[in-house]
Structures are given as structure tokens and as C-alpha cells.
């Protein structure tokens, strides 16, 4: 016999799946002229510098609001460090509030404090502590461990943005999910198409939030073995069309130097690379 908590979980899953179906059914964007698109980019879709000079150059200036950027890479390649550094840098520059969805216990306040200490400053000790407190108050972290919880959080976020409610004393400008693959991966496989449907639904919601509310969305993805044993980003062909920009990073063996490579970009050719330094 199914226990009460298992029954409750099952009902929640059905509810969130129904919600995903509704999202898919209601996903209709009106046609836009080239003039409207250009005006939107110039007036609304600004760039958020990550603080990594090489990475920002590769991105064309930083993480663009209105777009979904994916950073893929093997374990310990620096994906989480890029997320933490970007969150710290953007909060420090008063660019807005960062929402960090932590799916694998990767968010580290101590690491944020170390990053802040590395940022250029001429402040005395008390001022440094106030700076750290200000930065930390502009980074909101929530732990989520399954795709249905993610759908619920994104639904609540959309309601908040729609009613122009400030969170953490400011407007959300960056949404980070580290990592997206740890939530979506378990739903895939087998003959059922439900997992793929949920994955595409999540992608649609993220792109809609980015476009409608001028968010920059940054997600991380792990790597899996592909043809000939070569590594490739996880989640398959259905997911690869969703991000506007896809980068893969790899750490040089035994060093803090990483290489970022463009797999997909709205403005730049694939294959371009740049070196970045990630301090442990």
C-alpha cells in the first residue's frame, strides 16, 4: 500500500505536470518586426559583466538580459565558480538582485566571502565587512532537488515579476540554476516522453522569463560520453536548441587556468575560445 507521503508526492507531481502542459498550450508569442526587436535589444536587453575579462569578451560583453546562457563542463571544471563569481560581481556593481537556485548543494557563503575579498578595493576592514553584507543581501539562494520543485519556484517567480515586487530590496536581473542537468537528467530515459516534455517546458518557461522580464538566465550542465568517447553536454538534442548561448569550459590539468569555448552563440561563430583564471 502506498504511504501517505508517497501519495502526496505523487499528487504534487501530477499537479506540476499539468502545470507544464498548460505552459506549453499557452506558449504563443506575437510576431515582431525587426525594428521592434532591435529597439528591445538597445533599450532593454543590457549586458551583465561576469567579472571574468576573457569570459565577458567571449560572451560579447557579458551575460545578456533576455537570453539563456548555458555553461557546460566536466566535474571540477569551474562551472560553479563561474556562477558564484558572476553573482558576486553583479551584486557588487549594484546591477540588481541575483536569484541562485542550488540543486546540488553547490552554493557556498564562504566561497562568496573569498571571492569578495579578491575583488579590487581600497576599503578599510569595517567597510569591507559592510560591502560583503550588502553583496550577500543581494544574492538570494534556494535549494531545490527535483524538477517539480523547479517548476513551482519558476511559477512563483513569474508571479512576483509580473506584479513588480522587489525581492531583497531590488529588481532581479540574474537567475542562476546550478545545475539544470541534475534536475532534468533523472526524468529522462525509458520509453516515456514525459521527461522530455518536462525538460522542454522548463526551457520554455526560462526563455519566457528572460524575454518578458529582462532577466539573464545562467544554467550549468554536466558532460556525458558521446560518439567515439568524446565528451558532450548532457540532456541531448531536444535541450541543445533551447539556450541562446552555449559554452563549454575545461580546466587545464593541475592549474587554475580554464579554457572556455563557444558551442553556440547568437552573434559569434562557434569554436572561439578564451582563457579564464579561476582561483580556488
Defining key terms:
alpha/beta; two-stranded antiparallel ribbon; 12 strands
Overall geometry: globular
Side by side, the strands of the main sheet go 5-4-6-7-3-10-11-12
Extract low-pLDDT stretches. 5-10
- Rg: 19 Å
How much helicity do the residues have?
40-55%
Terminal-residue CA separation: 49 Å
How do the SSEs run, as a string of H and E? HHEHEEHEHHEHEHHEEEHEEE
Number of strands: 12
Count helical runs. Answer: 10
State the major sheet: 8 strands, mixed
The average pLDDT is: 84
Chain oligomer state: single chain
> Pairing-aware structural class of the strands and helices?
alpha/beta
> What percentage of amino acids are in beta strands?
15-25%
Structure, described:
The protein has about 280 residues and is α/β, with parallel strands linked by helices. The chain has 10 helices and 12 strands. A hairpin with a 5-residue loop joins strand 8 and strand 9. Helix 1 packs across helix 7 (about 145-160), helix 1 packs across helix 9 (about 195-215) and helix 5 crosses helix 6 (about 125-135). It is globular and about 60 Å long.
List the helices and strands and how they pair.
Elements (H helix, E strand, L loop, with lengths): L3 H22 L8 H10 L3 E2 L4 H7 L3 E2 L3 E5 L6 H14 L4 E6 L6 H10 L6 H13 L1 E5 L3 H16 L9 E7 L2 H4 L9 H20 L2 E6 L1 E3 L5 E3 L2 H5 L4 E7 L5 E8 L8 E5 L3
Parallel strand pairs: 3-7, 3-10, 4-5, 4-6, 6-7
Antiparallel strand pairs: 1-2, 8-9, 10-11, 11-12
Helix pairs in contact: 1-7, 1-9, 4-5, 5-6, 7-9
Amino acid at each position: 500500500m502506498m504511504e501517505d507521503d508517497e501519495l502526496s508526492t505523487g499528487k504534487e507531481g501530477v499537479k506540476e505536470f499539468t502545470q507544464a502542459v498548460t505552459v506549453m498550450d499557452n506558449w504563443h508569442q506575437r510576431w515582431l518586426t525587426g525594428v521592434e526587436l532591435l529597439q528591445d535589444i538597445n533599450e532593454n536587453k543590457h549586458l551583465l559583466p561576469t567579472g571574468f575579462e576573457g569570459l565577458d569578451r567571449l560572451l560579447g560583453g557579458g551575460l545578456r538580459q533576455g537570453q539563456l546562457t548555458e555553461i557546460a563542463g566536466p566535474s571540477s571544471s569551474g562551472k560553479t565558480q563561474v556562477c558564484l563569481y558572476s553573482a558576486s560581481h553583479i551584486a557588487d556593481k549594484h546591477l540588481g538582485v541575483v536569484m541562485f537556485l542550488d540543486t546540488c548543494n553547490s552554493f557556498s557563503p564562504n566561497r562568496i566571502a573569498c571571492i569578495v575579498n579578491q575583488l579590487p578595493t581600497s576599503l578599510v576592514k569595517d567597510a569591507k565587512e559592510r560591502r560583503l553584507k550588502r553583496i550577500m543581501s543581494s544574492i538570494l539562494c534556494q535549494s531545490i532537488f527535483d524538477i517539480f520543485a523547479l517548476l513551482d519556484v519558476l511559477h512563483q517567480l513569474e508571479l512576483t515579476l509580473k506584479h513588480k515586487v522587489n525581492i531583497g530590496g531590488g529588481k532581479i536581473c540574474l537567475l542562476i540554476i546550478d545545475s539544470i542537468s541534475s534536475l532534468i537528467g533523472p526524468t529522462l530515459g525509458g520509453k516515456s516522453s514525459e521527461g522530455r516534455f518536462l525538460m522542454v517546458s522548463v526551457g520554455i518557461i526560462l526563455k519566457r522569463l528572460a524575454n518578458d522580464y529582462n532577466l539573464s538566465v545562467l544554467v550549468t550542465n554536466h558532460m556525458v560520453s558521446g560518439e567515439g568517447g568524446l565528451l558532450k553536454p548532457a540532456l541531448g538534442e531536444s535541450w541543445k536548441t533551447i539556450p541562446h548561448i552555449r559554452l563549454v569550459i575545461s580546466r587545464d590539468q593541475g592549474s587554475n587556468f580554464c579554457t572556455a569555448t563557444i558551442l553556440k552563440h547568437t552573434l559569434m561563430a562557434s569554436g572561439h575560445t578564451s582563457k579564464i583564471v579561476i582561483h580556488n
